[in-house]
Write a structure and sequence with these properties.
By secondary structure, this protein is an alpha+beta fold. The protein has helices at about 20-30, 45-60, 95-100, 135-140, 165-180, 190, 195-200, 245-250; strands spanning about 1-10, 35-40, 65-75, 85, 90-95, 125-130, 155-160, 205, 210-215, 240, 260-265, 270-275, 280, 295-300.
Amino acid sequence: PLTIISARLKGMPFLGSVPALIYHHLYTYLLGNLALVDFEFSLESQDDHAMLNSSLLEMTADFRNGRFLVILTDHSSPDTGDVHIAPNNAGATTLEEVIIILQPAKCIHYSFLRRRRRSSRARKVSSLYITDLSPRFSRLIFEIPSNSRALFHQIIAFAQKNLQLAFTNKFLCDYAQNLFIHDKVHMGATIFDHQTLGAHTDVILFKAGEHLRFFWAHPILRPHGNPASTICHSCQFFMPWIDPNAKKRKLGQIKDHRAQIVHKCQNCELTLRYTFPEGAKWVRNNGYDGTERGSWLCELLE
């Protein structure tokens, strides 16, 4: 069984939201073993805060035994990245403070997730846009107190400031399917079907002990993860770049997947060279694999 708990900032629509999409996406797999609980929240006053905690406590009392996917739907200030806590952008605070506010609620409290070893696969997936993950915040969400579980198994974030949900929604649905249905916990099980997402944004995965950046690479459009200019800065030719080694790459004759990529302008023959980023690695260790879909790299963030 899986319970999706959806908390939406008051005024944000339910239809088209990530919780609604994930629910319909997983429904045919889990049938009667899937529940969706959705409610609006506001933290504009102390009463609103108390009401939110009361709602979460009541729900976790009803759904104590099972797996949970908790989704907080909110929007943030475009200038600071702070999360809004009331309708009509009436107030905002840091993501760290929102987590602290929610922490007393048993739905994200550590102890209620303690179960037998075989059934201890309770996981939570959160999609958040994070502008800063301070060491204190990292300790808050990932460190494990005595006799307890960490607050989050992992957090998925996106690096694009002008994030387009049309690209992220399908990715999150597929990721939830792989995680909760197929028990595939590795990002590589999902991310290779989402090249359009990679062209739009990097994906950041925060887990205890490591923070990983996944970024898309393409021999022409994004060589070794570096966005290629759409014009030649020498002759202003539009979409100018060709890869002299494209045929060898397609035939799999380039065995070194870290080899330098050369771009040549088809108009003025300006040459640009792209080296493999230090510390990065291929997610599937297959380079560009001779396809036009590109591939994914990842690197450990400090």
